């Protein structure tokens, strides 16, 4: 009797799984995509369509969950989704309607809590957000993306943003971008484990020196090194 119940349960689960997969319709997904495009360019969802899409799913365009969704689609350019990108991401998420995407928003947000996935999203954000004509990311864009990704979780973010404001840096390259994440994850708030002779980019060495001065530690640390 127990074996029979287990078999029925397995079959029922399989039936549920199949119906769940089959309930996704690529045709419906494409038709939904076309609601946000124009006849002139039916295979590209642009800024106006993106605004309407965000409004429909109830998410602000600058919400970090939109970055996670773009990551799932492997979208190449901020503010745009191609039909292929749309189908890649939404097929994986099994979403072909507003309601289904809304039901996945919490799942997408929770991906940010996994350190490995977050690192992937963070690295992806650099190429996604930068101007494709430039090798580096302009500082204005970098500030916005850093705020989005690290602002709530890195205790030193406010100070780092102030440092960038008064610094000579006009762009951030990919090496600096990736090291900012590593710095935020590994260096203590009091900088006690920061190694000035480590392999950090000069930008981060300068940030540490600047922050020590702001905290009134700059002169004493300089004297200590001189003695």
From TrEMBL:
Keyword Transmembrane carried by entry: no
Gene Ontology molecular function: any one: ubiquitin conjugating enzyme binding
Location of the protein in the cell: Nucleus
Keywords, alphabetical: Nucleus
All copies of domain DCUN1, residue ranges: 24-212
GO CC, alphabetical: nucleus; ubiquitin ligase complex
Pfam families: Cullin_binding
Taxonomic superkingdom: Eukaryota
PROSITE patterns listed in its UniProt record: DCUN1
Nucleus is among the record's keywords: yes
Any GO BP: protein neddylation
UniProt xrefs under PANTHER family: DEFECTIVE IN CULLIN NEDDYLATION PROTEIN, RP42 RELATED
Protein role: Neddylation of cullins play an essential role in the regulation of SCF-type complexes activity.
The protein's name: Defective in cullin neddylation protein
Protein's organism: Cephus cinctus (Wheat stem sawfly)
Native organism taxonomy: Eukaryota, Metazoa, Ecdysozoa, Arthropoda, Hexapoda
Gene giving rise to this polypeptide: LOC107267369
């Amino acid at each position: 009797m127990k074996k029979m119940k287990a078999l029925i349960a397995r079959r029922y689960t399989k039936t549920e799984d199949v119906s769940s997969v089959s309930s996704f319709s690529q045709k419906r997904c494409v038709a939904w995509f076309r609601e946000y495009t124009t006849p002139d360019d039916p295979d590209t969802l642009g800024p106006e369509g993106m605004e309407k899409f965000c409004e429909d799913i109830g998410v602000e365009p600058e919400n970090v969950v939109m970055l996670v969704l773009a990551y799932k689609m492997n979208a190449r350019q901020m503010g745009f989704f191609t039909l292929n990108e749309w189908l890649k991401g939404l097929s994986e998420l099994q979403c072909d309607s507003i309601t289904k995407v809304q039901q996945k928003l919490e799942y997408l947000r929770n991906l940010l809590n996994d350190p490995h996935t977050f690192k992937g999203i963070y690295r992806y954000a650099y190429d996604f957000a930068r101007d494709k004509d430039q090798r580096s990311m302009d500082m204005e864009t970098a500030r916005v993306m850093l705020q989005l990704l690290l602002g709530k979780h890195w205790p030193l973010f406010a100070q780092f943003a102030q440092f960038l404001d008064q610094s000579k840096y006009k762009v951030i390259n990919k090496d600096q971008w990736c090291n900012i994440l590593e710095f935020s994850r590994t260096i203590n708030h009091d900088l006690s484990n920061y190694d000035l002779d480590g392999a950090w980019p000069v930008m981060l060495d300068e940030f540490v020196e600047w922050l020590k001065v702001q905290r009134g530690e700059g002169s004493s640390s300089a004297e200590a090194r001189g003695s």
